């Protein structure tokens, strides 16, 4: 046996640094899988790009001029304090229900007809004819608004309709079709579609239709303080979005122009009503002034009162302007509008100024007061009369020729190429996504895999690696199928790989192990080979059974003992009965016999005999190992067999293996590739050391082809087995 190996926990601390070279090897090893997944994602991206519905965009441009005209500019002062119309206001006006609602009604956008297109149909279809459906009339009840009706072509002129409540009706092109109640009916004027072509027909409420248009409409200023608006609309029909955008622009410019005309007309109406009244007032004022002058002999206003009179005249003129503006605004805004409130505030200020001037005049002599009053009436009425005449002329011209403050720069036009999908970008992103996801997956898998993956990791503990056994694909598939049949994830195949496939690479590796053990055991009196593992499911029973068969096939007399009295299943692999006298029965005997043949079973393999777990296994088998029956029995086996293979429970689960190992000539540990951790092996060393037992070697089982062993020992047996 090898020198005593002490626990080497300090050696098991993993290197936390990332090995870039190893990551590169991992990528290179999985290059074909990464390439396949990348190509798959690229194909998906190509299919998506080719079958996605193209989205087009129509663009237009408007200029918002700063001043409409002098008269309306004065009215604008009341509303915004500036003669320039804010672009933000115009943007909101364009997107308002007032403008969009009229556009929806003008173009019938509340009725939406869509052919149903499937991605594969678009990809495989060779027809250039686009499905077409024209509806002459479509009325639905309130409950069916905003819900799609499905129309399916049954022939050149026949179709069927499926309502939202799954009712089916058949109709003929050109004829009315009643759909349930009297409020729901349709007439199809034209249908160009192959048999089975589906359409969806939806009648939206006006509000829903407006929201659909608004969702696809974009309005924005071309820059800060730049009075130019850019309008764009997106959609799947290039002609429809162009017509819709042009209609929105037409309705907006018409509204803008009509608002000016309406304002001018209201102001003109007010002036025409005021002029006759004002003309009478002017005539009366002149007569009164002439009569007073003749009676009093006063011909003119004193120079000291002239300034006061001129101030009164200006105030009266401003008040007339405000009344004119108020009349014009009343046709556009309500009394609660900020414009009205601002106008009323100005009127109050002028009234207060007028009151102060009148108070000043009242302090003058009676003669001066009277001449000032009469002169003021004449001058004010005369000035107002002239001013109203001028404004009437201006408003008359405006009413007849107003073009508003909006100028169309570019009418709506749709670009020839769709803006979406960006096919090249989609394909590129799909390829990049496939590359990074697949590469990232394998890199992460490599980084997270903490199990042993090389002989060097075991050697670092001071242990010898006696053999590396590649994963048998045949055994793996057989176990997988067996689990599915038994519906038990722990079930394993009930046959030996060495019998079913003697040229399997894993069997070739076991042959090499057999040779190794043969030479190691030469000269040893103790022929017992104990095989265990750190944890369950590492393949110790697989190694024990197949190794025993290989030794027997080499002409040796072999005894295989199932020492796992809890979960042993070697009897299943060898086709032996379970509940027969065996290992547990021997350990429970009061007195050991000279021969143990009654506890040993013959097998179908020449030279191989088997001792099962026994017919009477206790709940705590470890207690059976405390007497000397085990040593006496193994001593007997040493003298009657060339090799004794003892399969034991996992070391870290129960203490059985560490106790049995005291009576073995060779103690082997099975470590599972990618599963057994280095720390687990270190703990096994500690367990065995407590019982003064040496671990003579480790078998690395289930080795898979990975980046770490790509050019290593995996292919050694695989290539050999392929040639056999």
TrEMBL record:
Q: Where is the Tyrosine-protein kinase G-rich domain?
A: 366-446
Q: Which GO terms describe its biological process?
A: polysaccharide biosynthetic process
Where does the Polysaccharide chain length determinant N-terminal domain start and stop, copy by copy? 16-107
Q: How does it sit in the membrane?
A: Multi-pass membrane protein
Q: Where are the transmembrane segments?
A: 32-51, 424-444
State the compartments where it is located: Cell inner membrane
SUPFAM superfamilies, sorted: P-loop containing nucleoside triphosphate hydrolases
- Keywords on record: ATP-binding, Cell inner membrane, Cell membrane, Coiled coil, Exopolysaccharide synthesis, Kinase, Membrane, Nucleotide-binding, Transferase, Transmembrane, Transmembrane helix, Tyrosine-protein kinase
Query: Coiled-coil annotation: which residues?
Result: 268-360
User: Which residues does the UniProt record annotate as the domain AAA?
Assistant: 533-660
Q: Which NCBIfam families match?
A: eps_fam
* The name this protein goes by in its record: Putative tyrosine-protein kinase EpsB
Q: Which organism is it from?
A: Alysiella crassa
The gene name on file is: wzc_2
């Amino acid at each position: 046996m090898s020198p005593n190996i002490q626990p080497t926990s300090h050696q098991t601390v993993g290197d936390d640094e990332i090995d870039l070279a190893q990551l590169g090897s991992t990528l290179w090893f999985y290059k074909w899988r990464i390439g396949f997944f990348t190509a798959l994602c690229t194909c998906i991206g190509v299919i998506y790009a080719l079958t996605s519905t193209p989205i087009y965009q129509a663009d237009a441009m408007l200029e918002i001029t700063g001043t409409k005209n002098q008269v309306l500019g004065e009215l604008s002062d009341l509303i915004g304090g500036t003669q320039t119309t804010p672009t933000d206001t115009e943007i909101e006006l364009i997107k308002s229900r007032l403008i969009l609602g009229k556009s929806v009604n003008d173009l019938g956008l509340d009725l939406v007809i869509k052919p149903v297109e499937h991605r594969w149909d678009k990809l495989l279809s060779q027809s250039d004819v686009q499905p077409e459906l024209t509806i002459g009339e479509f009325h639905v009840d309130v409950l069916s608004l905003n819900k799609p009706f499905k129309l399916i072509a049954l022939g050149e002129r026949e179709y069927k309709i499926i309502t939202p409540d799954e009712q089916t009706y058949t109709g003929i092109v050109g004829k009315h079709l009643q759909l349930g109640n009297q409020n729901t009916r349709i007439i199809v004027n034209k249908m160009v579609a192959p048999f089975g072509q589906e359409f969806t027909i939806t009648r939206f409420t006006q509000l829903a239709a407006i929201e659909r248009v608004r969702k696809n409409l974009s309005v924005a200023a071309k820059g800060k303080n730049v009075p130019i608006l850019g309008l764009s609309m997106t959609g799947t029909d290039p002609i429809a979005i162009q017509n819709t955008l042009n209609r929105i622009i037409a309705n907006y410019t018409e509204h803008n122009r009509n608002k000016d005309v309406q304002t001018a007309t209201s102001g003109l109406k007010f002036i025409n009503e005021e002029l006759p009244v004002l003309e009478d007032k002017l005539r009366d004022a002149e007569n009164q002034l002439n009569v007073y002058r003749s009676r009093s002999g006063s011909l003119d206003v004193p120079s000291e009162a002239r300034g006061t009179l001129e101030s009164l005249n200006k105030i009266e003129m401003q008040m007339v302007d405000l009344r004119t503006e108020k009349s014009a605004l009343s046709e556009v805004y309500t009394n609660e509008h900020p414009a009205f409130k601002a106008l009323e505030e100005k009127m109050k200020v002028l009234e207060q100024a007028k009151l102060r001037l009148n108070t000043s005049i009242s302090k003058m002599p009676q003669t001066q007061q009277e001449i000032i009053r009469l002169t003021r009436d004449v001058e004010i009425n005369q000035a107002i009369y002239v001013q109203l005449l001028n404004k009437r002329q201006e408003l008359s011209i405006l009413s007849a020729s107003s073009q508003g403050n909006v100028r169309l720069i570019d009418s709506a036009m749709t670009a020839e190429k769709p803006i979406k999908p960006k096919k090249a970008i989609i394909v590129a992103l799909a390829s990049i996504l496939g590359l990074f996801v697949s590469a990232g997956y394998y890199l992460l898998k490599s980084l997270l895999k903490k199990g042993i993956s090389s002989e060097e990791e075991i050697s670092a503990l001071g242990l010898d690696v006696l053999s590396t056994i590649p994963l048998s694909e045949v055994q793996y598939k057989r176990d997988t199928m067996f689990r599915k049949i038994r519906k038990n994830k722990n079930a394993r195949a009930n046959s030996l790989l060495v019998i079913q496939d003697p040229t399997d690479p894993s069997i070739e590796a076991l042959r090499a192990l057999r040779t190794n053990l043969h030479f190691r055991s030469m000269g040893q009196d103790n022929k017992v080979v104990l095989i265990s593992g750190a944890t369950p499911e590492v393949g110790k029973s697989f190694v024990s059974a197949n190794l025993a068969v290989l030794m027997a096939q080499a002409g040796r007399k072999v005894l295989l003992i199932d020492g796992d009295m809890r979960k042993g299943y070697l009897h299943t692999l060898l086709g032996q009965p379970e509940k027969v006298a065996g290992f547990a029965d021997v350990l429970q005997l009061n007195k050991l016999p000279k021969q143990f043949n009654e506890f040993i079973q013959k097998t179908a393999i020449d030279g191989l005999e088997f001792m099962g777990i026994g017919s009477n296994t206790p709940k705590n088998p470890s207690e059976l190992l405390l007497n000397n029956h085990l040593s006496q029995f193994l001593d007997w086996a040493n003298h009657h067999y060339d090799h004794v293979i003892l399969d034991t429970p996992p070391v870290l689960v129960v203490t059985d293996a560490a106790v049995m190992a005291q009576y073995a000539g060779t103690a082997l540990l099975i470590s599972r590739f990618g599963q057994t951790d280095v720390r687990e092996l270190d703990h096994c060393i500690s367990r065995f050391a407590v019982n003064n037992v040496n671990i003579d070697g480790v078998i690395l089982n289930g080795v898979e082809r990975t980046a770490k062993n790509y050019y290593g020992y995996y292919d050694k047996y695989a290539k050999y087995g392929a040639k056999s």
